[in-house]
């Protein structure tokens, strides 16, 4: 299998070069950029599988860049920042980030996060999962696309993985900790709220009425369940 392609975006040359050099040593194909404008140019030419993206850039923010990149492809995003508040983390996830790591950080930890994110991509490619169809809803894991009434629904990479996980086992009540282990494949102690954030984003895109969800239901005291009965009527 070809090496994953990673774009590193950070305005600090020392950090940018350190990350790029480390990831290159891990056999990834790596490009780097110092600001948002350069990052988008490189993004279109390089077509990365994952972007390690600093939140604070001289000409934009990582939050804005994250949304822009994910409007172009279903790229994975690992946000890198010195912000440590829970609100900042939730904002990152709300903008579609797949993971979030704070400065200062260890390269071994960064490598673990990168492998965990890319493992989801490999597992989809290796297992040749089947498409799921429930009434007007189509989830195609090969193309990583979701359609409702033949209309393409734009989802971030992580939103797609989370929806597919739920829909592949309809009727199962998932605990948040189980979803974190299944989808993120990483230890997110104390970060279970990120599941709620992403479920909320998915509901905005696929539910007929986000205030009365019928596709992804909340199981009080447990977590969430995909209910196919509403889609088979």
Automatic annotation (TrEMBL):
This entry's Gene Ontology molecular function terms read: phosphorelay response regulator activity; transcription cis-regulatory region binding
Question: Which residues are reported to carry the modification 4-aspartylphosphate?
Answer: 54
Q: Which UniProt keywords apply?
A: DNA-binding, Phosphoprotein, Transcription, Transcription regulation, Two-component regulatory system
One GO CC annotation: cytosol
Q: Which InterPro entries match?
A: CheY-like_superfamily, OmpR/PhoB-type_DNA-bd, Sig_transdc_resp-reg_receiver, WalR-like, WH-like_DNA-bd_sf
OmpR/PhoB-type domain: from which residue to which, for each copy? 129-228
Q: Per its UniProt entry, which superkingdom is the organism in?
A: Bacteria
Start-end of DNA-binding region = 129-228
Coiled coil, from the record: none
Cite the PROSITE patterns for this sequence: OMPR_PHOB, RESPONSE_REGULATORY
Q: What is this protein called?
A: Two-component transcriptional regulatory family protein
> What is the protein's species of origin?
Lyngbya aestuarii BL J
């Amino acid at each position: 299998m070809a090496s994953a392609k990673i774009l590193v975006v950070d305005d600090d040359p020392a950090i940018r070069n350190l990350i790029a050099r480390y990831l290159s040593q891990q056999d990834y194909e790596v490009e780097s950029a110092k600001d948002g404008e350069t990052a988008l140019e490189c993004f279109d030419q390089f077509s990365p599988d994952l972007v390690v993206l600093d939140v604070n850039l001289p000409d934009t923010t990582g939050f804005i860049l994250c949304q822009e990149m994910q409007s172009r492809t279903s790229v994975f995003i690992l946000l890198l920042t010195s912000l440590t508040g829970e609100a900042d983390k939730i904002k990152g996830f709300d903008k579609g980030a797949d993971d979030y790591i704070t400065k200062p950080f260890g390269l071994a930890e960064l490598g673990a996060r990168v492998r965990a994110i890319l493992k989801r991509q490999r597992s989809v490619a290796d297992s040749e999962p089947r498409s799921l169809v429930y009434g007007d809803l189509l989830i195609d894991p090969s193309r990583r696309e979701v359609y409702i009434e033949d209309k393409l629904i734009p989802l971030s990479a992580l939103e797609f993985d989370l929806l597919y996980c739920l829909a592949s086992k309809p009727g199962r009540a998932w605990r948040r900790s189980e979803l974190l282990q299944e989808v993120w494949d990483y230890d997110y102690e104390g970060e279970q709220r990120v599941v709620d954030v992403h479920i909320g984003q998915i509901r905005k895109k696929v539910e007929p009425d986000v205030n009365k969800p019928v596709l992804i239901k909340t199981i009080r005291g447990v977590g969430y369940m995909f209910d196919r009965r509403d889609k088979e009527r």
